[in-house]
Amino acid sequence: MAEVPEPTHRRRSHAGTRDLERYAGLFAERTTVMRSSAMRDLMAITARPEVISLAGGLPDTSTFPPQSFAAQMTRIAQESAAEALQYGPTEGFEETKDCSLEVMGAEGMLPDPDDIIVTTGGQQGIDLVTKTLVDPGDVVICEAPTYPGAVPVFCSYQADVVQVECDEDGMDIDVLEKLLGELRTEGRRPKFIYSVPSFQNPAGVTMSFERRQRLVELARANEILVVEDNPYGLLRYGGEPMPPLYQLDGGDFVIYIGTFSKILSPGIRLGWTVAPPPVLEKIGLGKQATDLCTSTLTQYFVREYFAERRWQRYIDDLIEIYRERRDIMIEALRNHFPAEATWTEPEGGLFIWATLPEYIDTSDLLAKALRADVAFVPGQAAYVDGRGRHSMRLNFSGVSAEEIREGVRRIGEVISEQVELYGTLTGEHRVPEPTQETEPNVVPFRKAEGV
Amino acid sequence: MKVAVLKGGRSLERGVSLRSGARVEDALERLGHEVLPIDVGSDLVKRLVAERPDVAFVAMHGVGGEDGTVQELLEILGIPFTGPSAAACARCMDKVQGKDAIDEAGLPTPDWFAFNQTAFREFGAADALGRLEETLGFPLVVKPSRGGSSLGVKFARSPGEVPQALVSAFSYDDRILLERFVDGRELAVSVLGDKPLPVVEAILLEGDRYDFEARYEIGRTRFACPAELSAEEERAVTEAALDTYKALGCSGFARIDLILNDEGPWLLEANAIPGLTDTSLLPQAAEAAGLSFEQLVERILDLALHPAAA
To answer: How confident is the model at residue A446 (pLDDT cuts 50, 70, 90)?
Structure first.
């Protein structure tokens, strides 16, 4: 047997700038839109242990009973080790699809199991749908603000992303209708409309029943697909359940993206997509090219977990915990945010969207907040066009009650300082001054040359 | 040789610093040194005392690591370190101090006014804004005094935009400056020891030149190295940069940023610890001068251990 040489170094030698230029010539056109940003760098600091981070989007996995996890994994090891360690079918195991069906059934949906493909998280669903439908330059419509994780997907397929304003009732369908008309006159047909209709990430708003109906009708009339991303649908803390778009449409023009991330675990990377058969077939071919199949091991885990028939009880537990945290956050916002600020009061999900006076840029505010050891997601991350500069996304699911109170208090404090400063700068909140004009003789500024 | 690489820390530029640090560690290992990576935290002094490195490579950016704080500690502990002294770092980090020093040395820098928050909160400095806007003209630039990577730098195109720009800049520091906008070519001169490296020019790829935000957006700017300059321009630019380097008391290395227009070079600021990532300007300039990254790192170490060799 030939001698395998010892690796000479544990890390590769870094590329010099000339090398970078050499690689740059090889990069695909689409990578030009894959950019790092100063904001992403800023977000790196939010991971410091002393920072209270309301910037995450994490479910609280600490609530999952470890004994239960151990028992299920042991059973898999003892009874199905060979299968669980083997490749599986690209579209996923039938048993996994049954679990998806149970989850969808809980929200009143009854798709044909043959219309389902198991994916590596809901995120892969977004990627595969875009891969299947979008050519460079095609229009993709989404909400404004939209799920920050969807933007890089659309951009990597060089979609022309157009965002439609949201209000407390979700995407503004009047604006959407107008946009569709404009696109038609330009001879452009959007490929799909991406929406998180329930407890939207990041805005926390839920689309009203009337708008859901209109959206589905518009999609049918224009023969455009709607991609319904519904990770939080079962995490409802108040108000009346709302039918998913998929249910209203029956699955002709709605592609449905589901996930086990928020109701079980994001670490298992397991989701599913439901699509009309011709679309599903292409999605399947796309998935085969991407990763052959979703992890069989975690599919076995989900199967075991659902077999215990306790999954709905676990969601009920999560609802209790998250509802309390949401209420605490709203109370903290009322106590600590200035009167000029507004925020959404979501009936479910993981996020609250707060909007500040327009003279406060939340990306800059984050720098100040980090000095006070607290973090949030600046609103800009949820827009493709630089809007959202005065808003922020706050997460309440992955943080304790105490952290929520203290975190919101600290953010409120830095905002108040900026509000007060702006008032001083514009004279809006200035203490009354003598009426006669006085020379500003105590101002410690430097004279510029030539003054 | 045992080299401690100080990186990370709590500054807003932690991310860049970690990348700079990783690249330096890699080069040091390939140069055969014993590397002691330290993500700087409250145990820094303890670790340095326990490990006794021969030299510290400071790969930190922003407040804490680039403003003289870490350098001061290293001076007290008697550990030689790379880059400028604590005092020089403090002058470079604080744009107001830096511009004072540049101005006192008789070097051209755009007109400016500096304020701290107290001036506005307690002394009604807002009433003086109109007057200095008249002096500086529009657009004008608002910068936090201490801060790197252009964080918090805002352009105001009209009086109405000034308060908002001030609020943003004050998010980064309690002291800010308002500066006259000087239109021209954006150049950076890195100095190694007392030798200038080839000049780098930042060229805006798209959008009009008054789209100020684009300047700081990665991917919208291209860097040319060496910059296309006439011999006369190059001499003027490098001389101005070297004079600035000396005026600020820099040693080891630093990067001087300036604007070049028909009137000549306008000095903006000096960066005491410029980035060392694979897209940073100092390594690019070094490479244009024929120095590989390893050679650059070795030279920087040399300068730390034998300052007279500069």
So the answer is: very low
Residues 162-191 of B with CB under 8 A from A: 162-164, 166-172, 180
CATH 3.40.640.10 in chain A, residue ranges:
80-309
DSSP structure string for A174-231? HHHHHHHHHHHHTT---SEEEE--SS-TTT-----HHHHHHHHHHHHHHT-EEEEE-S
Residue A22 token pair: 């050499």
Q: B166, A448: Cβ pair inside 8 Å? A: no
User: What angle in degrees, to the nearest 10, is found between the helix axes of A362-371 and A401-426?
Assistant: 120
Class of domain A80-309: alpha beta
Residues B125, A445: C-beta atoms closer than 8 Å: yes
Q: What is the pLDDT of residues A48-86, one digit of tens each?
A: 788 999 998 888 888 888 898 999 999 999 999 999 999
Report DSSP letters for B93-113, one per residue.
Answer: HBHHHHHHHHHHTT-----EE
Specify which residues B140 forms β-bridges with: B156, B180
Q: Which of B61, B195, B222, B212 is nearest to A386 (CA)?
A: B212
* Contact criterion met (CB below 8 Å) for B283 and A17: yes
| Reported ipTM | 0.85
A38-62+313-426: CATH topology is: Aspartate Aminotransferase, domain 1 (3.90.1150)
Judged by DSSP in three states, A352 sits in strand
* Tens digits of residue pLDDT in A340-394: 899 999 999 999 999 999 999 999 999 999 999 999 999 988 998 888 999 999 9
- Give the C-alpha separation, A119 to A116, whole Å: 9
Identify whether the C-beta of residue A392 lies closer than 8 Å to the C-beta of residue A202: no
pTM of the model: 0.86
Cβ within 8 Å of A, B 6-35: 10, 12-16, 18, 23, 26-27, 29-30
Which 3-state string (H, E, C) describes A116-139? Answer: EEEECHHHHHHHHHHHHHCCCCCE
Q: Is the CA virtual torsion B183, B185, B190, B195 positive or negative?
A: negative
DSSP state of B261: E
Cβ–Cβ under 8 Å, residues B185 and B259: yes
Q: Which domains does chain B have, with CATH numbers?
A: 2-83 (3.40.50.20), 92-107+183-309 (3.30.470.20), 112-180 (3.30.1490.20)
